[in-house]
Amino acid sequence: MVVASFVIFPNGSVGNVQIKKSVSPECDAEVVRLVRAMPDWQPGFHDGKAVNVEFSLPVKFKLN
């Protein structure tokens, strides 16, 4: 399982992608590619104002 973290910015875009738990360089690169290819998210709000939100995403690989 690869664990990636990233930030959802106030405009809903995704950035600052980092790998927190690695399996292999190839799997890590694929997770980074997928996260960067995601469409914009709904931004997080605090006290009625859009803010940066850090998100962690575990991705399980089944390798043969």
Give the SSE map:
Elements: E1 2-8, E2 14-21, H1 25-37, E3 44-46, E4 49-51, E5 53-59
Antiparallel strand pairs: 1-2, 1-5, 3-4
- Low-pLDDT stretches are none
Radius of gyration: 13 Å
Distance between the termini: 14 Å
Structurally, how many domains make up the residues? 1
Secondary structure: helix percent: 10-25%
Strand order of the largest sheet: 2-1-5
Give me the secondary-structure category.
alpha+beta
* Percentage of residues in DSSP E strands: 35-45%
Query: Per the principal axes of the C-alpha atoms, what is the gross shape?
Result: elongated
Main sheet summary? 3 strands, antiparallel
The overall average pLDDT, rounded, is 95
Write down how many β-strands occur, each being a DSSP E stretch of 2 or more residues. Answer: 5
Element string (H = helix, E = strand): EEHEEE
Short description:
The protein is an alpha+beta fold.
Question: What would your notes on this structure say?
Answer:
This protein is an alpha+beta fold and 64 residues long. It has one domain. The chain is 20% helix and 44% strand. The model has no long low-confidence stretch (mean pLDDT 95). The two termini are 14 Å apart. The strands form two sheets. A three-stranded antiparallel beta sheet has the order 2-1-5, with helices on one face. It has a two-stranded antiparallel ribbon with strand order 3-4.
Quick tags:
64 residues, alpha+beta, 3-stranded antiparallel β-sheet, two-stranded antiparallel sheet, elongated
